[in-house]
Amino acid sequence: MSQKTEKPTLSGQRIKTRKRDEREKYDPSGFRDLILQGLNEAGSSLDAVYKFLDTAGSKLDYRRYGEVLFDILLAGGHLAPGGTIVTDFDTNKLLRTEVCVFSADDDLDSLKGYAQLITKLVRRYKYLEKTLEDEFKKVLVFLKAFSPEERTKLAKVTCILVGSGLVPSVVLISCLQDHLIKDGIALQFLLDFFKTWLLEKDAPTLWTALRKAGLETRLMEFLPTTRQTPEIFHETFENHGLSSLLDYLKAHQDTSVKKDLQQQVVPLLKNDAPMKEILSLLKDYQNKHSLLEHDLAVLVWKTLMAAVEWNKKEELVAEQAFKHLKKYSALLAAFTQSGKSELALLIKIQEFCYDNMNFMKVFRKIVFLLYKSKFEDFYC
């Protein structure tokens, strides 16, 4: 009977894992406890609070637990998904601190103190910049879980930090959640943000911040779906003392709309598109964007004159202009139904001819042509 072959075995010394190679267990509750204890000992003095946080940064892992740290500084405790404070089995544990934005006095100076605290901490530990941005993107989604007073304070601090450049304005997009829009929470947060901004800065700087976030054309989306109309939008801003911002936004939005309209009309003119097609496009834009007739009359004139490569010879350009305008005079007539529109167009034609002296000889002909075209349209 043959003996069974013994299987080979591995032998040798067992290598113990070095302590520095062992991955530390993720323990946000432990980190929270240490921060809350330190804040409690520091008291209400923000200078003492910063001194504690600055010193603790060399001992505690801010890089790993930065989200928990900012949860505490904003809301007073570690936030669970949804925005509530994380609880613990040990009911005797301290789970929340009063040294936070939500517990601060609702005046701008007090909230500026907390914004300054966060700013100093992030400048001390630069790696926290991205964590802070992610924190605001997160807490703005949780707005519904906070009280109206807490949301107002958060809006003011967000505004201060965005205004200082520490937090990018793109975080405001996080408010565009269906549940926040439906309940009017997103709109109120935005209004509180705007009102705070205009107390410290002006409309042009706010417009710049909105453009960086791509929000300059999306403000209507903050209103509940059933209320997303230009009339309600304007009324809401006016009722909250934001008329100056409304005027500034409208001027820039009109400029953007007009530029887009010109870019669509010019190719139609160059390709000899039917008059009805061009007129239909202009009317649609007028209704959709609430463009005023006198503004549109001037815009049509500028578009017509920009669509042609004018002859450089003085004796030829006048006749060229007259023929071109005769062809499209009906477009101008369609948007000069009021005396205000007629006057605005006449002034613009006069300015154009003055700036381009080659057209001076045809100025009277142009005016006569437009009046004739309008009356023919009226009697037809």
Automatic annotation (TrEMBL):
<protein>
    <submittedName>
        <fullName>Basic leucine zipper and W2 domain-containing protein 2-like</fullName>
    </submittedName>
</protein>
<dbReference type="Pfam" id="PF25504">
    <property type="entry name" value="HEAT_5MP1_2"/>
</dbReference>
<dbReference type="InterPro" id="IPR003307">
    <property type="entry name" value="W2_domain"/>
</dbReference>
<dbReference type="InterPro" id="IPR016024">
    <property type="entry name" value="ARM-type_fold"/>
</dbReference>
<dbReference type="InterPro" id="IPR051245">
    <property type="entry name" value="eIF5-mimic_regulator"/>
</dbReference>
<dbReference type="InterPro" id="IPR057397">
    <property type="entry name" value="HEAT_5MP1_2"/>
</dbReference>
<feature type="domain" description="W2">
    <location>
        <begin position="252"/>
        <end position="380"/>
    </location>
</feature>
<feature type="region of interest" description="Disordered">
    <location>
        <begin position="1"/>
        <end position="26"/>
    </location>
</feature>
